[in-house]
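Q: What does the predicted 3D structure of Peptidoglycan binding-like domain-containing protein look like?
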Amino acid sequence: MNKYTVGLFLSLALLATPVTAQAITNTKGLSADQVNTIVQLLQSFNVEASIIEKVKASLGAATSAVEKRFCHTFEKDLTVGSKGDEVIALTQALKTSGITTTGDASKFTENNAGDVVAFQAKHGIRQTGYVGPLTRAKLNALYRCQNGESSSLVPKPTQNPIPPKECPSIVTPACVGKAIVGSDGCMIGWKCTTTTSATSTSSSY
């Protein structure tokens, strides 16, 4: 069976069973990259462009429902003491790689170094616990953002706003006047002004 026949068979199988293709995508987590690989495979078999377009269309709806893959482009070396977004992204990448992480999510500790050692061992990289050029290259080979993707960093938790100061309740007298406010912004009294036809008096409460 030549390459063209294999490609044609695969294409026709997908076209004949679009529901099955969608089911496979949903249940097996077939990613957009995997679908692109299938398309590239068909192209390598010199399958007609019209058939390839039909295959892409049959898988298009299914791939739209697939969750966005984790991506981040690593640009910095990381070691014990490193902090920030790169460490957060590293932790997510290690988890995505199947590493059971024990380190801090945002600060590179000795435990993070141990997690990196596990990743390096899994991928045949010298086990230093340091994210240097070779380890970054492997991380980027697996998780680099492509085709306009943005980094999948978990949003930073927002700090709880400082609750407003609670001022003691002040009974407002039934008079015309204005509040007396203390240096802390709380009302500490009320200045009443009463006006008669002859005089006006002022008093504070």
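A (community wiki): The structure tokens above were generated from the sequence. DSSP finds seven helices and three strands in the chain. The mean pLDDT is 74.
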